[in-house]
Specification:
CATH superfamily of the largest domain: P-loop containing nucleotide triphosphate hydrolases
Number of domains: 2
Strand content: 15-25%
Shape: globular
CATH class of the largest domain: Alpha Beta
Order of helices and strands: EEHEEHHH
Distance between the termini: 38 Å
Radius of gyration: 18 Å
Helix content: 25-40%
Number of strands: 4
Strand order of the largest sheet: 2-1-3-4
Largest sheet: 4 strands, antiparallel
Length: about 160
């Protein structure tokens, strides 16, 4: 298998059920799919069918009322379900795989400058100094074609697409 078709993500029999007052909700029930490098997968379905629950199950962003959570999640061939929570947090979640929610533009803190918010994960998760994190944020902005001066702006100063 060459680099262009290398397996990036493989999900096998992923299950996530919740306990509710009305009984068990089978949000994710035996999901299987594969995603190769340089490919995309689209999860479609009506509201409430489990799309967000699937994404959260892959990232282990689980609510307190989990009744059953099982399956296999391979990231670049490594079964990350075998990682303990700390290993997963440090090496997988937000480091190799992330979730961008539907209302991502509402996720920015309106009273913090955009650059500070973009730099914060590097400070918190990678332990870098603020100056280094801001330089990383500046490079990321350059990479995606966002003007550097946006680092000093507040979210309300940006369009929805820029946010």
């Amino acid at each position: 298998m060459n680099i262009a078709t290398q397996r990036l993500l493989k999900i096998e029999d992923l299950v996530l059920h919740f306990k509710t007052r009305s009984g068990t909700v089978q949000a994710v029930d035996g999901v299987d799919f594969e995603l190769d490098t340089n490919r995309a997968v689209v999860i479609l379905g009506e509201s409430g069918c489990g799309k967000s629950s699937l994404a959260k199950a892959i990232l282990r962003l689980l609510p307190r009322n989990v009744e059953q959570y099982s399956g296999e999640v391979y990231l670049q061939g490594t079964d990350v379900m075998k990682f303990d929570e700390e290993q997963f947090r440090q090496n997988v979640r937000w480091a190799q795989i992330s979730l961008v929610p539907q209302a991502a533009m509402n996720a920015l803190n309106p009273v913090m400058k955009v650059g500070d918010q973009v730099a914060e994960p590097a400070i918190v998760h990678l332990g870098v100094k603020k100056e280094e994190a801001m330089e990383l944020a500046r490079r990321m902005f350059q990479h995606v074609g966002v003007p550097e001066d946006f680092l000093q702006r507040y979210p309300f100063e940006l369009s929805g697409g820029m946010r």
